[in-house]
Amino acid sequence: MAHALVVDNNKESVTEICRVFSGNDFSVETVDDPADARDAISRQMPEVVLVNLNGRDQRNEREAIFEFLSDANLGNVIEIYLMSGSPSYKLAAEGMRAGSSDIFEYPKDLERLDLTLKEFQEEMSCEHDPEQQPHKSGRGLLRGNSAPMRRLYRLIRKVAASDVTVFLAGESGTGKELIAKTIHELGPRKQCPFVAVNCGAISPELAESEIFGHVKGSFTGASKSHKGYFQQAEGGTLFLDEITEMSPELQVKMLRVLESESYRPVGAEKDLNADVRILASTNREPEQAVAEKKLREDLYYRLAQFPIRVPSLRERGEDVVSLAKHFLKKENDASGQEKVFGDEVLEILRLHHWPGNVRELKNLVSRAHLIAGTEITVDDLPANLLSGEAEGSQFMRLSVGQSLEDMERRMIFATLEHYDGDKKEAAEVLGISLKTLYNRLKKYNLE
User: Fold this and answer.
1) Is residue 336 part of a domain?
2) Cβ count within 10 A of residue 229
3) Angle, helix 147-160 to helix 176-185, in steps of 10 degrees
4) How far apart are CA 181 and CA 163, in angstroms?
5) 3-state secondary structure of 143
6) Nearest-CA neighbor of 134 among 121, 115, 153?
7) Nearest-angstrom CA–CA distance, 280 and 126
8) Which of 127, 161, 191 is the last residue of a domain?
9) Are residues 215 and 229 in the same domain?
């Protein structure tokens, strides 16, 4: 049976709310304030927390509520709902930044709460049923069954069917583009284009033309008209990756597009309709980016109609092992081999901090598969993974008992990796000819 925690200091409303939860097969515990809620969660972790803000008009009371919600990223593993007698967009935005996923008006929305809890119970059953279709489970292109990922799937299910703007915040390598693509493919625009734009990779001089397009002759060198990203994504989804790297001037223009739902290509005489869904992301903390003037506050609030915090790999528990095995299977399928992980390797993967997140894990598995024999052992892992040192260590670990051929193979790959794939430099350092190096690489790939 799913468990719920209701934080409410009003006897009348708490009775009605508990009745709704009980009617949907939830066991319910009630507390008056956030301090008691922390103790209740430590005793039994709930699937859902509902916080009634009625009667908490003092600013310090609401701050305590939102501090409780955001404490230890609670909203990353628990479904959090707010309730208020007079909900507002500002209150909803504050709550979502703190981790809540919905806000209800009391007593008007008790029926909607009832429907939401019914859907939640259905979704919980979907999450544990491998036969469910991706659009029902919310997984889509994503993998993992940890609590943070199950909550992410619920948020994706909630937002995919709508057309609201979604703002993804998470560390580099957590898969924000894959999440954006999943939202697109589970939504009503899936038959139309998905266009991903790395805002940090666009030349500042060409940024406006790249995003909005230009007409022939609009500037020197414009020998023909160019369709910008908005036009390329017509009817579909435009994903603005690393939005905080966009120039302040272009952020102003982007805000105008979002407000007017139209844009004008460079040199054009009339506006075009912006029939696209906008998804955006950053690897920074959004509020900090706003404070540092990396992101306009008004643009952030316009983009963050539905903010989602993407969990880091170190928060995902056993997902590390399941992902590693998934990446290894892909490497095996591509090479026609059947390499496996040693038990000690899997334990090391569990304990690593993963600053580079899923991207780091994928690259590590690819590297280990390349240099290992039939079993990936501790000796096939990079030195920094064992020592906790930064990447780029100039040392590698060898074990007594390895064959000379195996040590040679590992030394060649480690040297190539150290010199960023420069074969000529690697051959010189290894004291072999470039032709010999190519022959060795050909031999290893064939094996």
Assistant:
1) yes
2) 19
3) 40
4) 14
5) coil
6) 153
7) 28
8) 127
9) yes
Q: Could you report the per-residue pLDDT of 208-229, keeping only the tens digit for each? A: 899 999 888 888 778 888 899 9
Residue 377's SS3 state is: coil
Residue 335 has pLDDT above 80, yes or no: yes
In this structure, are 158 and 289 located in the same domain? yes
Location of structure tokens 């809620």: 37
- pLDDT tens for 303-330 read 988 888 899 998 888 899 999 999 999 9
Whether 377 is covered by a domain: the verdict is: yes
Q: Kindly state whether residue 33 falls inside one of the protein's structural domains.
A: yes
The DSSP result for 82-130, as a single string, is EEESS--HHHHHHHHHHT--EEEETTTTHHHHHHHHHHHHHHHHHHT-T
Residues 55-92 have pLDDT tens digits of: 665 667 777 788 877 765 677 678 889 999 888 777 87
- On whether both 207 and 88 belong to a single domain, the answer is no
User: Does residue 132 sit within a domain?
Assistant: no
Q: What is the 3-class SS of 279-321, one letter each residue?
A: EEEECCCHHHHHHCCCCCHHHHHHHCCEEEECCCHHHCCCHHH
Q: Indicate the average pLDDT of the chain.
A: 85
The verdict on 336 and 401 lying in the same domain is yes
Residues 421 and 336 in one domain: yes
pLDDT, tens digit (0-9, with 9 covering 90-100), for 153-174? 888 887 888 888 999 999 999 9
Residues 6+ apart with CB under 8 A from 342: 375, 376, 377, 378
Enclosing domain of residue 362: 314-446
Cα(275)–Cα(238) distance, integer angstroms: 10
Measured CA distances, 362 to 274, 321, 359, 366, 369 (Å): 36, 11, 5, 6, 11
